[in-house]
Amino acid sequence: DLVGVPIHARPVQWRSGWGGSRATSTLELLGPQYQRCRILLEEGSAGDSAERVERKRSLWESEAKKALAAAEKGIVPAPVAVQNVTFDWIDSRQNLVHFRAKRLQLQVRLSPDEPRLQRALACAFISPAEVLQAHARLEGEGIR
Description:
By secondary structure, the chain is an alpha+beta fold. It is built from three helices and eight strands, in the order ββββαββββαα. It has helices at 49-72, 115-123, 128-140, and strands at 2-9, 13-17, 20-31, 35-43, 80-83, 86-91, 96-102, 107-109. Strands 1, 2, 3, 4, 5, 6, 7 and 8 form an eight-stranded mixed β-sheet that branches. Helix 1 (49-72) packs across helix 3. The radius of gyration is 15 Å and the shape is globular. The two termini are 26 Å apart.
């Protein structure tokens, strides 16, 4: 489980691999202490999988836009709890932690049921400056 502020969602793409084609989108999250997390959201090759991933990606992007708008006004953005993600790997050069999630399992909540996540959200603080800095870094990397 992760706690942080959504900052970006990449468009849905099709990827081929050993298990066939699948729809994917990469979601960016800014965690406490400026920890960047990247979540690879995947869905199997069912006919409408791209549409289902797009719905989840759109919700994420909507939260990212709200967070950016708050940060631009100097307001602390509301963090979210992200559940059912699996650690994948760490890119120490970019200070980026990678996770994976299946579309049906990924849950994004502003007020989770679990007391542990409620406490984590209550303690999570990501400043407006950190959100703006993360967006500037994404633009510098050519992502935004």
